[in-house]
Amino acid sequence: MLIWVFNRDFIKRGAISTYKSLQWTEEYRGVGQLEFHYSYTNDPDDGARVLNLLQQGYFFYQRGKRTAMEVSYIERNKAEKLIIVYGHTTLNLLSNRVIYPQLSVRGRVEPAMYDIVNRFAVNPATNRRIPRLHLASGGSLPGTHEAEYLGEEISEALQDLAFVGDLGYYMEFDHEGKKHVFNIYQGRDLTHGNGIYPPAIFSDNYGNLTQSIIIDDWTQFKNVAYVGGEIKEGRQRVFVELGNTSGLDRREMFIDASSLQSEYRDDKGNDIVLTPAEYRRVLEHFGWKELSEYNKRMTYIGEIGNLDDWGTRYYLGDKVTCISNDYGLRVDGRIISYTEVTENNQKKLAVTFGEPEITGWRI
Q1: Nearest Cα to 189, choosing from 319, 330, 335, 359?
Q2: Which of 101, 269, 353, 359 has its Cβ near the most Cβ atoms within 10 Å?
Q3: Cβ-based neighbours of 197, under 8 Å, separated by 6 or more
Q4: CA 310, CA 331: separation in Å to the nearest integer?
């Protein structure tokens, strides 16, 4: 597939039509990745042209994709006449800004996510603005949350909030309007029996599910946490305990939340003083968020054989039904990630289902 290359000002610098391999990964909530291999053994002149297109901070874009990839790593191997490029979806631009000063979130998740991007990247009080970054129009997507953020990258806070609301988000690459547009959305329920949409069902019997892997991972599982709050001279440190599992099933961890302050000045210059009860709730929310990173993880990975309906009937963020006759299982899950691999003009698509629900095998 043709790759268009743009500079930071959205000026088209050229195109790459032939290459050894391209791996393009997008996430439902989070930053995706790019891996690109280009061999110029047959045409050194074209190698020089392509090398001139590969610059740090340039963007790779493919028609039909809603986002682009920012180049962050370039390896030039003269002996093998090979160029290797790594990058990330343009959501990674938000990883270059942190939440400072401390920010309170109270209420609906979707407007809170837009507010974070607006405050610290679109319309900040200082020179922290990310050029050409805009916000999409908000809606009425579900989810409420209460938390304090300080020092996290914007992308980390967005991931936390989106998980609460079961929302996805992406950075649209509007090359015609010459802007990046931050969007929040929620995928559709396309599982069997959803009652609204025609279902999307994948099965080895149907020929649209060629491989499947189920991973049940407890290696980093924790279910009890001790959370330590701010450290101030002359004041006893506040600790909260989360979880009450006992015996062999109890798996403890300590979480340092000393960066969260009970008294602070927000980005609008307002002095904020939390009551002891409010501050304990802040520590609890922070602790549960950290503890969730050490949860049991079940992941279902399937390779889709028929790509004709990808991006039309179903896409990243949608919930679909998979039937594995080998495992005797029916799995309903949301597509939280996809990886598109192109080699020798042949394309493969692998999708990952987050927190899949195993409901048996009959439909």
Answers
A1: 319
A2: 353
A3: 188, 189, 190
A4: 19
Q: Which residues of the chain have pLDDT under 50?
A: none
**How many angstroms separate the CA atoms of 150 and 141, rounded?**
25
Question: What is d(CA 111, CA 113) in angstroms, rounded to the nearest whole number?
Answer: 5
Q: 317 is written with which tokens?
A: 């963020």
Residue pLDDT, tens place only, 14-59: 999 889 999 999 999 999 999 999 987 766 667 778 888 999 999 9
The dihedral over CA atoms of 237, 242, 244, 247, expressed in degrees to the nearest 10, equals -80
Query: pLDDT tens across 266-289, in order?
Result: 877 889 999 999 999 999 989 988
- Own/partner contacts of 9-13, CB < 8 Å, gap of 24 or more, are 9/178, 10/132, 10/175, 10/178, 10/179, 12/175, 13/53, 13/58
Residue with tokens 């080895």: 204
C-alpha span between 318 and 337 (Å, rounded): 10
Q: Which residue has the tokens 């979806």?
A: 89
pTM of the model: 0.82
